[in-house]
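Your task
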Amino acid sequence: RLHLVQSVADSFAHLNISISRFRTGQDGATKWLTGWLSNKLETEVSIDRLRLQLFNRVSIDGLYIEDYHQDTMFYARNVVVPLQSLNVWNGKIALGRVQIEQPVFYLMQDSTGYTNLKQILSKINRKQKKERKPFRLTATGVAISDMAFKHRKLERKERDYGVNFTDLDVRHFNLTVRGVSVVNDSVNLAIDNLSLHEKSGLIIERLSTRNFRISGVGMYFDRLHLQTPESNVQMDYLSFSTGTWKGYKDFLERVKISSKIVNSRVSFQTIAFFAPTLRKWQTTFTDAATKSNSS
């Protein structure tokens, strides 16, 4: 499930070799890398400018990746990746603080039933060997600023109110995380701040958690804080138990949720974005505290 990350790791290995060959002219490195990525992904990839800073800090301006329908799948005004260490033999990559400025990510589903990202990952999958080496990626942190994200399914359900998960449109997405660790299919990190605006009117002013973990068995948030214009929620923990990755596809039926809410203000106006039948309720719970388990 981390084939794209593994391919990025391959890119770093080739990028280091490429830049070493083109010390006198990084335009050559840019041309070589875009050609290599385009061939690897079997789609159009372009880079406006590639710079090597302090010998281990790669800065990419205007990174563009096209999907198989010749539409934009990903674009970033600037990506900065400080490479601390790379071992292609044991699959270990250590990065500094990664910065992604003004990215655009469009996740679209077509008549095949697959998203544009899934289609590209499938191409990579076929090219890789069946037996994969252990993979470990660490990063001091990641900062994403002012991202636009869209997710549209082929069969979209119309909704008069609330978040439509078949037609998401997120703007002003900002994320700061630290202590990132990716080991095979498990991700572990701390979220210092997440904020966004969704076209439904949902605004998350701040989301933070001391520790966030996700894997095939589930998701876990430790000391979660969520703030919207109407609500201020504190949780000792929030847990989603899935059993396998496939469990996420049938969230309502197969996912067990447990949480502990403390010292919170919860407004039905916030809940209504996910449960529109509560839209007309003006109730707000203050000093809310509860422990719940559901399956």
Q: What stands out?
A: The chain has a mean pLDDT of 84. The longest strand covers residues 92-108. Helices lie at 3-21, 26-41, 116-127, 251-254, 268-271.
